[in-house]
Amino acid sequence: MALASLVAIASPARAAADDGLTVLRGVTLVDPAAGTSRADMILELAGSRIRRALPAASYVPPAGARVLDLPGRYVTPGFVDMHVHLLLHPWDAE
Q1: pTM of model > 0.90
Q2: Containing H/E element for 38?
Q3: Are 72 and 38 contacting, i.e. CB atoms less than 8 angstroms apart?
Q4: Residue 18 burial (CB < 10 Å; 0-12/13-18/19+)?
């Protein structure tokens, strides 16, 4: 799956290890709150923070930036797994 590959390749934690600017080029940014997505975008990561997102059309990466060409990959907000079984623990007698 493309998303899993992107997470493995370019997570903010990995970008933080480099302590430099990482550019994700050609990604599709997904905004579930608005119900939209924007294709062929640039995402700049500075350490563990997103610095900016903009269209890739005329973008020139700064000198020294690590550039990852990722067309066909998706960037989505983080998800929280809220699935739990509170009453099915082995220590519950009932």
Answers
A1: no
A2: strand 36-46
A3: no
A4: exposed
Pull the structure tokens for residue 93: 């007698």
Q: What is the pLDDT of residues 37-94, one digit of tens each?
A: 999 999 999 987 999 999 999 899 999 999 999 999 999 888 777 777 766 666 656 5
Query: What gap in Å lies between CA 10 and CA 75, rounded to an integer?
Result: 10
Residues 6+ apart with CB under 8 A from 25: 42, 56, 59, 61, 67, 68, 69, 70
Instruction: Give the angle subtended at the CA of 20 by the CAs of 65 and 24, to the nearest 5°.
Output: 50
Residue with tokens 């709150």: 33
